[in-house]
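Q: I'm writing up a methods section and want to include an example of the input and output format. Could you take the sequence below and give the corresponding predicted structure tokens, formatted cleanly so I can copy it straight into the document?
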Amino acid sequence: MNTATRAFPPFFATQFLGAFNDNYFKNALVMLITFQAAGLWGLGSAQLIALTGGIFIAPFFLFSPMAGKLADRYDKVRLIRIIKAAEVMIMAIGAAGFLLGSLPVLLVALFLMGAQSAFFGPIKYGYLPEILPREDLLKGNARIEIATFVAILAGTILGGLAMSHARLQLIFVPVGIIGLALLGCVAAWRIPRPLHSAVVDSAGVSLWQVFRQDVLASRAVRNAMLGSSWFWFLGATILSLFPVAGKSLIGGDEALITACLTLFSLGIGLGSFVCERLSRGRTELAIVPLGAAGLLIFLIDFAWLCMGLGHTPYTTLRAFLLSAEGLHFSCSLMGMSACAGAFVVPLQTLLQERSREGVRSRVIALANMMSALFMVVSAVALMAAHGLGFSIPQIVLALAVGHLAVCVYTFATVPEFVLRFLCWAVARVLYRIRIEGSERVPSEGAAVLVSNHVTAVDWLLIAASTHRIPRFVMHHSFNDLPVAKYLFRFAGVIPIAGRSESQAVFDRAFVRIEAALKAGEVVCIFPEGQLTRDGHLGPFKAGIERIIATTPVPVVPIALVGFWDSFFSRSRGQWMRGNPLRKLRAETAVRIGTPVSPESVNRHVLQEQVAELLAWPAESAA
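A: Here is the clean output for your methods example:
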């Protein structure tokens, strides 16, 4: 039994029980404030609910630097066990707060619970890459997210139900939170240590150095942090609005608010599950723009819906949920949260994959700090908005505008997200592609991909089938196509021409290829030099040998199978001739072979390897 098989179930249970307990406690506290007229320091219930969100999140900002440093320097499993033991003591304080009816004691317990979660976060996301292979990392993250939000759902429901029984709440809540903490301890003690732990003595590396070298220097990591933090800003704001919206717009009670939180949590879990299925085991950044667009649409829809609520009184939860408004409300809420789940899971996986081993937990700690800052700002802004008299629809519309601004900035500064989405979406509309051997493309460092040339969209098919966006070397005439030329320039395509056409373009292409490889990028070329005219593999030209002689890097052979006779091939003399639906959604494959070392590169050998890939029997669909 390997480490992942042994480690993931108890780790999964530890995470689930921790999230369950957090939300059981928090929702019980929110219900106490909302429906039992609990007040403090002259604050109203809406402002006090927003304040509780800030109190829980503030420790993430205060303690994340220390948490990340500890997680990078010490055994993560031992730290998990210490943290879960601390949870038992914290929940004992919370239980005392409920028994005494003391809001200050409950807020102290809430702050300590936030601190415990702040220390657990960097360990959680740093431990997963140690026990899971790269191809399973997104799946692991998606399942952790699903578990988290199922736990949020269960904790939220049971916390609300416990507080709905006036006589029994003083038994259900204290016993429940302590019991869950004890179960979490049992699960934590069953987590095995990984055989090859990533503990590195990096005490001399300051948090500022990690921020400068690993965050600011990488636009992908920086914007993944921004997107993830924005997700938590949105989530914190929407969740804080539910009690106020349920009471003022719909006239509901604890049951309605619990139903809203249930729908929201189910949506996040659904989005994470869909993300896992669409990604097929890879970190598929194409899903990020898809989730972002859906989230914007549902935010606007939710704001518009809230404008119409409040005119019809609903006497029961069932009456509201079965009404036209209730069905619309449920669909909008679940759609919003599902898109949010699909938006954030690839971003979190990207942070793990592109963070250096030895400082990964500190990068995640910085991400948690940023998320915490956004959530504290959310609490303060929400308190101010309520104080200034802003309506719920106005607040949600403001969130939609902010979301649009964050997306425009992120996708404009990191074109990889948009390029990946375009390639992924178009390739799956045109064909049913089976991807074989995608893990053979190096995850880091320079490499050259060589492929047969079947259609005018081969670049798009390869980009959709690899986890890195290559720099494609394509005939310069493609840069003159209307509309498409902007996409090629956006993608950093390297134009090339034959010597007889333009010696200057030919020489400049090799200079740019050398620069890209020295920068650690992946470059893709089509050594045949032109689209096949008969569907067969043509002779490879000597350009690949010149590239490797100048910049020795691994070469990965690729075969595009089943694309001949499609609309974009030359099977009718010219591409884009005849019936455009020809071979639409046909069964095809992108087969990626074993990398060839630089010293073994020979154009004839590479041609034979691509020919062998073309002749392979089809593997089972990925």
